[in-house]
Amino acid sequence: MGNCKFVILILGLLLASPAYGKNLGAIGMTYPVVEPDLIEEIKAGIDYEKLAKVMEEHRQNYKAKDIHALPAAKRDRTFFVDMTYTLNHDIPGEIGEIMYPRGLTWNPLDYVSLPDGLVVINSEDAKQVEWFEMSPYYKNRQIKLLISAGFAAPLIKQLQRPVFYLTKTIADRLQLAAAPCVITQNGKMMMVQEVKIDE
């Protein structure tokens, strides 16, 4: 009997005519809006040239807070970094089950690859910038360029390519100790090549 009442209620709602809004007209005195349009006021108060100048200055002077400085390489050196990682805590799933337990060990290079690699330079060192421009890495747009010092904006303009900041997290994970260096995948390891620039 309860189901029958529910069905009748649903049918009644479906068959009910939809409500339409209609203009009820004006009641009482009306007055024109005298306040200025807020959007127009905001637009009128913005000095777009000044704003563009401020934004460009900010872009030119921006430097990542966590940029990680590297000294100049004293010698050519190549070493390999094992990317294997061990979880130090459980990672739960949506309903609280443990998806990845503490102590699980895996190598991300089993699942992803870095075919082109990274190059790290100190953009405040003209010799390192010149070395990069003369290297085969300069023409390869797939290689990511990171800087361990300096500002990215002028280098982006000079090299006409994206430039990223080297952070401590990246430097620590790849065990980076000097620049310039080239980081490429070598099987299940990352190979780091430090390059000494001749005086």
Please give a handful of descriptors for the protein shown:
single chain; 199 residues; alpha+beta; Glutaredoxin; six-stranded mixed beta sheet; two-stranded antiparallel sheet; 10 strands; 30% helix; 19% strand; flat
Helix content: 25-40%
Provide the CATH architecture of the domain at 77-194.
Answer: 3-Layer(aba) Sandwich
The total of helices stands at 6
Radius of gyration, taken over Cα atoms and rounded to an integer in Å: 31 Å
Elements, N to C (H/E): HHHEEEEEEHEHEHEE
The overall pLDDT average reads 85
Total strands? 10
Terminus-to-terminus distance: 95 Å
- Strand fraction equals 15-25%
* Strand order, sheet with most strands: 1-10-9-6-7-8
Structural class: alpha+beta
CATH fold description of the domain at 77-194: Glutaredoxin
Low-pLDDT runs of 5+ residues are none
Q: CATH first level of the domain at 77-194: which class?
A: Alpha Beta
> Which word captures the global form?
flat
Largest sheet: 6 strands, mixed
Write up what this structure looks like.
The protein is an alpha+beta fold and 199 residues long. The chain has a domain at 77-194: Glutaredoxin. It contains six helices and ten strands; from the N terminus they run αααββββββαβαβαββ. Strands 1-10-9-6-7-8 form a six-stranded mixed beta sheet, with helices on one face. Strands 2-5 form a two-stranded antiparallel sheet. The protein has a two-stranded antiparallel ribbon with strand order 3-4. Strand 7, helix 5 (152-159) and strand 8 (164-165) form a beta-alpha-beta unit. The longest helix is centred in the N-terminal third of the chain and has 14 residues, at 2-15. 16% of the residues are buried. The mean pLDDT is 85.
